[in-house]
Recover the amino acids of this structure.
């Protein structure tokens, strides 16, 4: 099986906090669906129902060249599932700020001094798609998984972010669904459809961590038709409702259950 770094080719939703110098950043990708917002309040409102493949582009120094905007850190605290890309001129004086942004969870940086073409800026944006969710999925994986198994999970995560299914995961590797199923069994991941159910639950749990989202908006963003569909999936898989899981830390609970599921699948394979 080939080793792949998976990136989505489906449309990426960009929300840009309008500022001088950022217009070119959004011009390098024909698959970008761009919305410009004029202020932090409008930006927060835009993210309440944003799809999980959304990337926010911000110049945190637009209003103050000496320090990044506190509102950016507040936004990342309120919407930890959303990929935020900072677009600004990186200077030696701002290295400490960049370190602070990375620790806070920023998903990428476009250096307006170096990344001066739309194509280069677009590459940074595409690489940031779903990065917060992918970090959480990676953290949930047990150590026994092979590199090939992790490639499949990354592909499944990319596909879940844009609402795709089993055939879309297979298409990433240019194989059919039957071959993908054989790989999933070989690498101790269980049935492909079951794997996607878990990835979608992890995606939904990540979205439930966003204080600005309701359970219904998290469900719809994760690909369920309503909160009822998400509730059914949680009850069938975890035996509890998403509202209950949210109170107890949705992401931690689902991550632990997913890890235990993969360990159990591997144990069956050894039996």
């Amino acid at each position: 099986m080939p080793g792949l770094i998976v990136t989505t080719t489906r449309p990426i939703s960009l929300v840009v906090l309008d500022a001088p110098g950022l217009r070119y950043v959004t011009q390098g990708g024909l698959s970008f669906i761009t919305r410009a917002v004029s202020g932090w309040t409008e930006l927060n409102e835009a993210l309440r129902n944003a799809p999980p493949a959304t990337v926010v582009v911000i110049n945190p120094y637009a209003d103050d060249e000496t320090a990044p905007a506190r509102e950016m850190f507040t936004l990342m605290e309120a919407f930890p599932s959303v990929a935020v890309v900072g677009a600004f001129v990186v200077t030696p004086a701002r290295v400490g700020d960049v370190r602070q942004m990375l620790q806070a969870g920023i998903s990428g940086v476009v250096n307006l001094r170096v990344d001066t073409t739309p194509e280069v800026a677009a590459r940074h944006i595409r690489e940031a798609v779903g990065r917060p969710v992918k970090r959480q999925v990676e953290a949930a994986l047990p150590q026994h998984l092979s590199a090939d198994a992790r490639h499949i999970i990354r592909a499944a995560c990319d596909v879940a972010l844009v609402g795709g299914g089993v055939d879309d995961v297979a298409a990433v590797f240019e194989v059919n669904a039957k071959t993908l199923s054989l790989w999933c069994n070989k690498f101790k991941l269980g049935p492909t459809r079951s794997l996607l159910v878990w990835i979608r639950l992890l995606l939904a749990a990540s979205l439930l961590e966003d204080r600005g989202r309701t359970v219904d908006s998290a469900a719809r963003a994760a690909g369920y038709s309503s909160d009822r569909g998400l509730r059914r999936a949680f009850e069938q898989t975890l035996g509890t409702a998403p509202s209950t899981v949210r109170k107890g830390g949705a992401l931690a609970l689902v991550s632990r259950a997913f890890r235990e599921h993969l360990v159990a699948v591997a144990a069956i394979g050894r039996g």
Remarks:
- Residues 250-270 form the longest helix (21 residues).
- Residues 1-8 have pLDDT under 50 and may be disordered.
- The radius of gyration is 19 Å.
- Residues 90 and 98 are 8 Å apart (CA to CA).
